[in-house]
Amino acid sequence: MFKSKIAGDKILDVGCGSGKFPGSVGMDVVALEGVDQVHDMNVFPWPFEDNSFDAVYMSHVIEHCDSILRTMEEVYRILKPGRLVYIITPHYTDAISWQDITHKWHLNTRSFRYFDPEYHTNYYTKARFKLVDSYVGISKFFSIFGFEAAVNLQRKNVAFRSFRSFWEQNLCFIIRGKNMHFLLQKPAE
């Protein structure tokens, strides 16, 4: 979805497994082929210098961490100012969110608003990220009928912002979500 926006000389793929983001430094707890840094993401600090990465990519990993706050603080620490974080995670109504017994968190489309500098109760962390864009997939059956497009219209049309909220608060257990994509930006200092 947002892969084309992730660029730079030094990109970190957290929890890369065997499918590392092209051209990135791969970090995983298991020494698989392609993993450059074997390290448990739940052990802090990560073995990287402050402000050392141009981008951070986290595909299907944030839901496995012990603390989202602590993990995002570490991402904030190692990411250069003004740079992007791309997070992919299942919507809490997707069956995979609950089937995988290693998932510790079940998130929704508003979960990462917590890190916005303007969010009213974000005083439990110093990590700040502006939500640049987000996209939520919908189950294929309902996608055919245009629900996925409608849920994501808020990205381009302010008038449709309330539809995503309406879907998530009233319809999401009938019209189930799938993967969510978040593009966050660390504020320029």
Outline of this structure?
With 189 residues, the protein is an alpha/beta fold. It has helices spanning 68-78, 95-99, 140-143, 147-152, 161-171, and strands at residues 11-14, 25-28, 37-38, 53-59, 79-90, 130-138, 177-185.
Task: Explain this structure.
By secondary structure, the protein is an alpha/beta fold. It has helices at 68-78, 95-99, 140-143, 147-152, 161-171; strands spanning 11-14, 25-28, 37-38, 53-59, 79-90, 130-138, 177-185. The protein has a single domain (3-136, 180-185), classed as Rossmann fold, CATH 3.40.50.150. Strand 4, helix 1 (68-78) and strand 5 form a beta-alpha-beta unit. The chain is globular, with a radius of gyration of 17 Å.
CATH architecture: 3-Layer(aba) Sandwich
Give the helix tally. Answer: 5
Largest sheet strand order: 3-2-1-4-5-7-6
Overall number of domains: 1
Low-confidence stretches: none
Task: Describe the main β-sheet briefly.
Answer: 7 strands, mixed
Shape: globular
Helix content: 10-25%
The CATH superfamily is: Vaccinia Virus protein VP39
The count of DSSP E runs of length 2 or more, i.e. the number of strands, is 7
What is the succession of H and E elements?
EEEEHEHEHHHE
Distance between the termini: 27 Å
Strand content: 15-25%
- Which CATH first-tier class would you pick? Alpha Beta
Computed over alpha carbons, the radius of gyration is: 17 Å
- CATH topology call: Rossmann fold
Structural class: alpha/beta
Mean pLDDT: 93
